[in-house]
C-alpha cells in the first residue's frame, strides 16, 4: 500500500483528511508544536493517531518559531486578542510552508507518495492553503530531489489537500462523521487551549457553520 504523510493537528480538517485517505494509504502522522496557544490540539492528535491506526506518529517540537514570529500573529502571541471573524492577524507567516518542508523531508525518507494537509475550499483567506501555493511548493520540493527521483532513489511527492480535490470543510465533516461517528466532536478547532472550545473565536465559528452546512447537529462542547 502507498504511504502518505499527514500533517496532523488534531483539528477537524486534518482528522477528516486522514479518514479520507485511510482506505488507500498507510498513514504516517506528523504534529507540530510551534508555540501555538492551542496546545490542547497536540493531546487530541495523539489520541486520533491511535484510533486511526497510524503506522507512525511524530510530535515535532519547533517551539523556537514562537520567538521568530514575535508579535506578528494572534496564534503564537498570547497577549493579543483572538478575533471572532477573519483578520490577517490570524495568519501565521508561511506556517504551512514550514510544516510541509519538514513533512516532505520525512516523506522522501519513507518513500511516501503524498504529503497531505487539511486545507479546504473555505480557506480562501490563507495564501499557503491555496492550490496554487501547493502546486508551486510541490514543484520546488521535487526539483530539490530531482537527481534522486531520476535515479529512482526517491519517489516524486504530491502535496495533496482537500482544497486541491475541491472539498469543503462541510464535505470533510460528512466524510469524517460517517467513519468516526460521535468521535468527530472530540476533534479540536479552538484557537484557545481550555477544557472546552471557547465557541467565540474565528475557528470555533467556522466549525459551527461547517457542521450546520453539512447537516450534522454539532455536539461539540463550547464554553
Task: Name its key features.
alpha/beta, 223 residues, 5 strands, single chain, Rossmann fold, 8 helices
Count of discrete alpha- or pi-helical segments spanning 4 or more residues: 8
CATH fold category name: Rossmann fold
Classified by CATH, the class is: Alpha Beta
- Summarize the amount of helix as a percent range: 25-40%
Which strand order does the major sheet show?
3-2-1-4-5
Label the CATH architecture.
Answer: 3-Layer(aba) Sandwich
Strand content: 5-15%
Secondary-structure-based class equals alpha/beta
Which outline best applies?
globular
Q: Whole-Å distance between the termini?
A: 42 Å
Gyration radius from CA atoms, angstroms: 17 Å
Mean pLDDT: 97
CATH superfamily: HUPs
Question: Which residues sit in consecutive blocks of at least 5 with pLDDT less than 50?
Answer: none
The ordered H/E elements are EHEHEHHEHHEHH
Overall structural domain count = 1
Protein model, in words:
With 223 residues, the protein is an alpha/beta fold. It has a single domain, classed as Rossmann fold. Helices cover 39% and strands 12% of the residues. The protein is built from eight helices and five strands, in the order βαβαβααβααβαα. It has a five-stranded parallel β-sheet, with helices on both faces. α7 packs across α8. The longest helix has 16 residues. It is globular and about 55 Å long. The termini are far apart. The model has no long low-confidence stretch (mean pLDDT 97).
Amino acid at each position: 500500500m502507498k504511504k502518505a504523510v499527514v500533517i496532523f493537528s488534531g483539528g477537524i480538517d486534518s482528522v477528516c483528511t486522514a479518514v479520507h485517505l485511510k482506505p488507500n494509504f498507510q498513514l504516517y502522522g506528523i504534529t507540530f508544536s510551534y508555540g501555538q496557544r492551542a496546545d490542547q490540539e497536540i493531546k487530541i492528535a495523539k489520541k486520533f493517531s491511535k484510533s486511526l491506526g497510524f503506522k507512525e506518529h511524530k510530535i515535532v517540537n519547533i517551539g523556537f518559531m514562537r520567538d521568530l514570529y514575535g508579535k506578528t500573529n494572534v496564534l503564537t502571541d498570547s497577549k493579543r486578542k483572538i478575533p471572532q471573524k477573519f483578520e490577517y492577524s490570524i495568519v501565521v507567516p508561511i506556517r504551512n510552508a514550514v510544516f510541509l518542508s519538514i513533512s516532505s523531508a520525512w516523506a522522501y525518507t519513507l518513500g511516501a507518495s503524498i504529503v497531505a494537509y487539511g486545507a479546504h475550499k473555505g480557506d480562501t483567506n490563507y495564501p499557503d492553503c491555496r492550490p496554487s501555493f501547493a502546486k508551486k511548493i510541490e514543484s520546488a520540493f521535487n526539483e530539490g530531489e530531482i537527481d534522486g527521483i531520476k535515479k529512482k532513489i526517491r519517489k516524486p511527492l504530491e502535496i495533496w489537500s482537500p482544497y486541491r480535490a475541491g472539498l469543503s470543510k462541510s464535505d470533510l465533516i460528512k466524510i469524517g462523521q460517517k467513519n468516526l461517528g460521535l468521535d468527530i466532536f472530540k476533534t479540536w478547532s479552538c484557537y484557545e487551549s481550555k477544557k472546552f472550545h471557547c465557541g467565540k473565536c474565528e475557528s470555533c465559528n467556522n466549525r459551527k457553520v461547517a457542521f450546520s452546512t453539512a447537516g450534522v447537529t454539532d455536539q461539540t462542547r463550547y464554553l
